[in-house]
Amino acid sequence: MVGIGLVGAGAFGEFCLDAFAAMDDVQIVAIADVNIARAQMLADRFGARAYPELAPLLANEAVSIVALNTPPALHAEQGVAVLNGGKHLFCEKPLATNDTDGKRLIAAAVANHVLLTVDYVMRYNPFWAAAASLRASSVFGTLRHIDLANHANGLSLPASHWFWNKQLSGGIWVEHGVHFFDAIGWVTGQVGQALSAHEYTRADGKTDCVEGLFRYGDTAVHCYHAFDQSGETEQTTVRLTFEHAYLTLREWVPTSLEVQTRIDPKHWREHLHGTIKENTVYAPEGKSVLYRESIQAGMRNLIAASQRTAALNVSGADGLASLQVAAEALSSETPLGGHDVHATP
User: Fold this and answer.
1) Percentage of residues of the chain with pLDDT beyond 90
2) Strands 49-51 and 26-32
3) Residues 6+ positions from 281 with CB-CB distance below 8 Å
4) pLDDT digits (tens, 9 = 90+) for 244-274
């Protein structure tokens, strides 16, 4: 059993704890949060020790891997402390909020002979994996264009939430966009470059929407992220245009992949995994199950890599590459006001 300590026991931290607890090869041994009552409540539930801060958790010899689920601005300081403490780091995205801190984390992992990975769940999603496999096969020809329209749930976040504070979150490109920058880099096999970007502000001055143009080798990419929907109305669509096909991924953690092509299915069906209906492959179990399984797969890969039975699928360098694209977009942003269709109630 591999001992896991989790830092940052918010709602997503609890979701991760549920995912880890369902794994046969791990044991949750420690939970730290500045809200010690919250940490204690979850510790009681999972049979772990509760701590009000990181340092005593790192002193717990039963902890082999630390899952870091705190706001992005804390990842550098806390992540370096984890790595200097001789623990492997399972870092929630983003790796850090800037290039310098990302490099510090990578250097700390190397210096202490421990592993660092980022929780990029798209790498373990069967539909993103199918897109990557189809691109690599060249069965549909060259991948020419990717269009991402991400209409996300932001209305449930109060104005006081750290997500809206760029000093804490890094902004939408850094906090959220890195998921897709990594996935697109994985699918294309190319390093991303930001060409131009814009941000939109709502009535209360919060940035709730960003849009940008990017280039990954010969593939043109358009990204639109808007946090102006509710949980009931949010939608995400990623459309990949090849020379001889269109692929459409639906939901931000995709639950389906639709293929439009004149090429005979016998040449491409082998790349699809899931329940197939006509030219669409989907996961009837739904987004939450896929999300949990992807988190488990990332943790399982880190454990295997730490035991030298597998290579690390997502390295610190991967986390840095996606962060650098986000930083380029952030630095090239042009503010656009008057985007006040949805204001926080």
Assistant:
1) 93
2) parallel
3) 127, 130, 256, 257, 259, 272, 273, 274, 275
4) 999 999 999 999 999 999 999 999 999 998 9
Instruction: Tell me the C-alpha to C-alpha distance, in Å, between residue 227 and each of 147, 150, 189, 344.
Output: 17, 8, 28, 11
Buried b (16+ CB within 10 A) or exposed e, 194-203: beebbbbbbe
> Measuring CA to CA, which residue among 101, 102, 63 is closest to residue 82?
63
Task: Write down the pLDDT at residue 336.
Answer: 64
| CA 87 and chain centroid, separation | 21
Q: How far apart are the first and last CA of the chain?
A: 46
pLDDT reported for residue 333: 75
Contact 161, 102 (CB under 8 A): no
Residue 253 to residues 30, 265, 311, Cα–Cα distance (Å):
28, 25, 24
Cβ contacts of 233 within 8 Å, gap of 6 or more: 151
pLDDT, one tens digit per residue, over 79-99 is 999 999 999 999 999 999 999
Token pair, residue 230, equals: 């509710």
Helix axes 287-306, 11-21, angle to 10 degrees: 70
Report the relative pairing of strands 143-153 and 116-118 from DSSP bridges.
unpaired
Distance CA 338, CA 326 (A): 24
Nearest to 211 by CA among 332, 63, 296, 88: 332
Q: Closest Cα partner for 3 from 53, 59, 79?
A: 59
User: If we measure between CA atoms, which residue out of 22, 19, 7, 1 comes closest to residue 67?
Assistant: 7
